[in-house]
Amino acid sequence: MTLKVLIPPSVDLAVLHIDLWWRTHRDKAPDLFEEEFAAAIELLAESPHIGRLYQPSRHQGTRRLLLRSTRFHIYYVVDGDVLSVISIWSAIDGHGPDLGRKSAP
């Protein structure tokens, strides 16, 4: 079963900014980010559990998938037949995005 993929406007805007940066600074492979992101979204729609679980996050079941060539992580959650992308973040930043970490009880 193929899941429906939701990408909110804030993440879509981040993807557009990354793609623009990539096209401007990576003249030998200007389409690489766009192609790798699109392929990853297709793969996740078919096999959503391939991403590793990511903690801490206020979104239970948050997973992330590494885009190996461009070194970005896609953060997402699955709820029934819907996969929601919640962030995209550079894997070389040394830390992940603030996903509303849970506070200690």
How would you describe this protein?
This protein is an alpha+beta fold and 105 residues long. It has a single domain (4-90), classed as YaeB-like fold (2-Layer Sandwich), CATH 3.30.2310.20. It is built from 2 helices and 5 strands; from the N terminus they run E-H-H-E-E-E-E. It has helices at 9-25, 32-46, and strands at residues 4-6, 52-53, 63-67, 72-79, 82-90. Strands 1-5-4-3-2 form a 5-stranded mixed β-sheet. Strand 3 and strand 4 (72-79) form a beta hairpin. It is globular and about 40 Å long. The N and C termini lie far apart (37 Å).
Provide keyphrases for this structure:
single chain, 105 residues, alpha+beta, YaeB-like fold, five-stranded mixed beta sheet, 2 helices, 5 strands
How is the topology of this model organized?
Blueprint: E1 4-6, H1 9-25, H2 32-46, E2 52-53, E3 63-67, E4 72-79, E5 82-90
Parallel strand pairs: 1-5
Antiparallel strand pairs: 2-3, 3-4, 4-5
Main sheet makeup:
5 strands, mixed
What is the CATH domain class? Alpha Beta
Principal-axis shape: globular
Radius of gyration, whole Å: 14 Å
Helix content: 25-40%
Give the number of helices.
Answer: 2
Number of distinct beta strands: 5
Which CATH architecture?
Answer: 2-Layer Sandwich
State the secondary-structure class.
alpha+beta
Q: Span from first to last CA?
A: 37 Å
Task: Return residue spans where pLDDT drops below 50 for at least 5 consecutive residues.
Answer: none
As for the number of domains, it is 1
Range of strand content: 25-35%
